[in-house]
Amino acid sequence: HRSIFFTSPDQLVKATSRVNVIVLVGRLDSSVVHVAAAAHAADVPIILDLADNILSRRHPANRAGCNGVNFSALVPALVGVTVSTHILGARVREQAEVLGLCAPDIHVVPDVAETRAIYDETARFIAGVQPDGAAFEASAKARATPKLDRELKRILWFGDSTDPHTTSGIFSLLPALDALNKLSRRVALELVVVSDIKASFNELTKKMGFAARFVPFSPSALFDELERAHMALLTGGDDPLEPAHLPARALQAMAMGV
Q1: Per-residue b/e over 120-142, b at no fewer than 16 CB within 10 Å?
Q2: Rounded to 5 degrees, what are φ and ψ at 214?
Q3: How far apart are CA 71 and CA 77, in angstroms?
Q4: Helix and strand element counts for the chain (H, E)
Q5: pTM score, whole prediction
Q6: pLDDT tens-digit profile of 137-175?
Q7: Is residue 161 helix, strand or coil?
Q8: Nearest to 77 by CA among 147, 144, 16, 141
Q9: Chain-centre distance of CA 80, in angstroms?
Q10: Are 36 and 46 in contact (CB under 8 A)?
Q11: 187 with 155: CB under 8 angstroms?
Q12: What is the CA radius of gyration of the chain?
């Protein structure tokens, strides 16, 4: 068997007659309707792979609810949906019912414990580059970051910023700040936030009594901070999406020894 990766829906539509099965990874934009139509005409089954609940109306990528419309069009062509947790699977079933659909078969495929080496090897595979074992090991050693000042305990939070009018995303840290302030009087702390919007970080931390540092999200930046962190503080707030995200983030932190 051979896997082919497409980033262009138009290219996938043109290649539909040459594939045996299509796996759509985390996409429910309008382009999937065209893919579904082409797959149906060619009698090619489709699997939808979801690592996030992009069917929720609270998801940033589904503000207008268009993902539900596209999912409704996609369902007749689906042979199944793969998700990373049972919680996310339940969310997908609930959203299907809200849309008046008979939910497709849902299969739970747990996330791997992602490390920097796994991320790099996956990126190389997708790019079609064969890794040089010796060069890869040398590169990993060259960029390895040692723990910094042992007197300063780094507490890491990573995730999306989301809406400042909710207690989800970065603002789910709000209930923990009092405890962290008290702890900082006994232990030198630094709160490190790896996220996407610095303005949200600034709003969150403007009245804090201890050090805080914002790091713009990228896979490399996240792995750097996981290597430096003494503890990961993973909070979810009142966002119904968060229970599906937290296990994956906890697994990633533990995989990096945090």
Answers
A1: beeeeeeeeeeeeeeeeeeeeee
A2: -100, 135
A3: 10
A4: 10, 8
A5: 0.69
A6: 555 455 444 445 567 899 999 887 665 545 567 888 888
A7: coil
A8: 16
A9: 21
A10: yes
A11: no
A12: 21
